[in-house]
Design goal:
By secondary structure, the protein is of the alpha/beta class. The chain has one domain: TIM Barrel (Alpha-Beta Barrel). 35% of the residues lie in helices and 16% in strands. The chain contains 12 helices and 9 strands. It has an 8-stranded parallel beta barrel with strand order 1-2-4-5-6-7-8-9. Helix 2 runs parallel beside helix 4. The chain is globular. 37% of the residues are buried.
């Protein structure tokens, strides 16, 4: 074997090693996210940087190192899933009416508004467009999407993205099983437990007894009187999600308070919470890094 041929073989093997390493590095998995770290979820993507539920807001979240974006789904007149939070498009776009009043071609002629209501040059994205951007870069949580799971399912199946997407809903286990029993074992699902509305261990235990949930989202109310022991929930090898968005969701431990005093976020790990949905992703990530509680998704 000549020296030149040997060098070529070594170079080729080295290239293969690099490619395989990059491929492994680029794979993300909800199943593999470390349980001892806190997952950061950007509410409606990074809406302070760009219009909510926009492609740019998602890209900004990826740039910041956010682990997951929460997005909202709606259906156009011709059956295409788009990103939209409200029942109407009035607040967030230059149009008026329901998303279902428009075909995709018609709704794509409208512009998104920013957080101050000023029109931008950005368009309403489809779910498919968003998945093209997020694949193996950031997780997605689907909100306002319970009625669309059966439409989302084949899209994710074709793209092999089930381990990157978290479904959720307020349904009881029986309601969830009746509607989605045929697909439930292929998706990651998270029940929402409204502690502030009297729900609690009964709903948690009903799911734990019948189904392998990814975690539970808890809404807490204005104070801590509704809390249950999240450490006991975590013993079932599931995650605990709490929203830091507003006082009435976080027992008063909300983002605006943390903006004045970042140590407010310490309440979450102290109470065994390991997923936080926030409107201040940069500030939360900065805090978690200092506490060694942050894990970069990619």
């Amino acid at each position: 074997m000549t020296k030149k041929l040997l060098n070529n073989i070594i170079s080729f093997c080295y290239l293969l090693l690099i490619c395989s390493s990059v491929g492994a590095y680029s794979q993300i998995s909800l199943t593999q996210f470390p349980d001892d770290k806190i997952m950061v979820v950007a509410h409606r993507a990074d809406w302070r940087e760009a219009p909510e539920n926009s492609v740019m807001a998602i890209k900004k979240a990826i740039e910041k190192g956010v682990n997951m974006v929460e997005i909202d789904l709606a259906l156009t007149k011709d059956g295409v899933l788009i990103l939209m939070h409200d029942k109407t498009i009035d607040r967030t776009t230059t149009g008026k009416g329901s998303p279902s009043d428009y075909t995709l071609e018609e709704i794509k002629k409208l512009y998104l508004r920013d957080g101050l209501g000023v029109p931008t040059q950005m368009r309403i994205p489809t779910l498919a467009e968003v998945l093209d951007i997020t694949n193996h870069k950031i997780f997605i949580n689907l909100d306002k999407a319970f009625d669309y799971f059966d439409i989302v399912y084949p899209i994710l199946k074709e793209r092999k993205m089930f381990d990157q997407i978290l479904f959720k809903g307020t349904a009881t286990y029986d309601e969830f099983n009746k509607k989605y029993g045929k697909i439930k074992d292929e998706i990651h699902y998270m029940p929402i437990v409204r502690l502030n509305s009297g729900e609690g261990w009964a709903k948690v235990n009903d799911y734990l007894k019948n189904y392998k949930v990814y975690g539970f989202e808890f809404t807490l109310g204005q104070d801590e009187k509704n809390l249950i022991n999240f450490k006991d929930v975590r013993k079932n090898k599931v995650k605990v999600w709490v929203n830091s968005l507003w006082p009435e969701l976080s027992a008063g431990h909300n983002d605006d308070k943390a903006l004045e005093n970042p140590d407010v976020y310490q309440w979450y790990p102290d109470h065994n919470i390991n997923i936080i949905q926030t409107d201040r992703p940069k500030e939360l990530i900065d805090f978690l890094k200092k506490k060694n509680l942050y894990s970069f998704t990619q």
